[in-house]
Amino acid sequence: MQADNDPPQAAETPQETAENTAAQETQALDPWEELEAEAAKWKEVSLRTAAEMDNLRKRTAREREEAIRYANQRLLEELLPVIDNFEMGMQAASQDTKSMIYIGMDMVRRQLNEFLSSQGVEEIPTSGNFDPNLHDAVAQEDCSAGEDGRILRVTRRGFKLRDRLLRPASVVVSKLPTPAEGGAA
After folding, report:
1. pTM higher than 0.85, yes or no?
2. Alpha-carbon distance 106 to 94, whole Å?
3. Is the dihedral of CA 18, 21, 26, 29 positive or negative?
4. Number of neighbours of residue 124 by Cβ within 10 angstroms
């Protein structure tokens, strides 16, 4: 009986061999496909990394340019009170415009204004209507002639550094008078 059992095992062996050969051929193709898939994966990683590096380079350049543009912002902010005090001195000296003190102070004022302009500092316009983004309302006054929210006078000048606000202008704003309550009985 064992002899009868041996031939069927021999018959199964060629089938197994054929299956093994087909499996080996499949495995022979799989490493190639695996290599192509891995190469595609690394290509995608490489492209993503290159894009990230390009974005980083652009962002760094933009931040460096902005840092250069606004590098003097703190210095200019600290200089503004000095300019305010200088303007008050100019007002006091303006009573005698022929004096050497006034003439010298006027020359310094022109130099300061030229310096501020060269640094990109502009005075905030204070004519027209109140803008809460540029002005700081320190008081309101009744004004029968005119409109509500119009700037009446400036108590402290405001400045911008290019497109950034250094200091808002302090202004007095008009308001329409309110009718007296219970006055007409």
Report:
1. no
2. 9
3. negative
4. 19
Return the pLDDT at 18: 55
Diameter of the chain measured on Cα atoms? 138
Average pLDDT over every residue of 99-124: 93
* pLDDT tier at 182, thresholds 50, 70, 90: very low
Q: Which CATH class is domain 73-175?
A: mainly beta
Q: What are the pLDDT digits (tens) for 16-26?
A: 655 565 555 55
d(CA 124, CA 57): 35
Written as one letter, the residue type at 74 is: R
- Crossing angle, helix 100-118 and helix 73-93, to 10 degrees? 160
* H or E element that contains 166: strand 164-167
Pairing of strands 135-142, 169-175: parallel
Q: Where are the domains of the chain?
A: 7-69, 73-175
Contact (CB, 8 A) for 126 and 41: no
